[in-house]
Amino acid sequence: MLDLMNERVPVCLESIDEAAASWYAVYVQSRCEFVARRQFTRLGIENYLPTMKKTTQWHDRKKTLDWPLFPGYLFVRVAPIPREFAHVLKTHGVVCLLGTKPGSPTPVTAEEILHLQMMTRSGEHLSVMNRLQVGARVRIRQGVLEGVSGVLGSMEAGNKCLFGLNIEILGRSVCVMVSPGDVEPIAD
Asked: Is residue 10 in a domain?
């Protein structure tokens, strides 16, 4: 009998029913986000590592680098079956798949991933905060982030407001400043 748990073979994405595949948050070892992303890509596992530009000061110069938006985390899209989870967990640098129950990975909604991709591609300055607990659910109605839904935070000086996209499984929010006129409330 072939031991698939210990065999490292590329995952054939064509064999995964697109409707059955879901996004999952993966926790990786410290500073292994880019290593894990390369490994997932090599294995044929669809993945997403949200990054932001960060300027670091070295002793002789400044350098702008891609930095993980959520240090220690990235996302993979696989079918919710044990064999697919095993491929993810056997990848170098991976610690675990996140879930609300031990041993049971919790899917991240495709909408959260899509909106996170829109925010990281927007070129806007992003900041990550702990999940916003209070505030109204809103949708951005115009501009490069049109259609992104999230939580309205505080009003800031200069007639700007804080808009946050909650990534529920991580318990974190990605925030950007927007004009109050660019958002509309979402009916519950």
From this structure: no
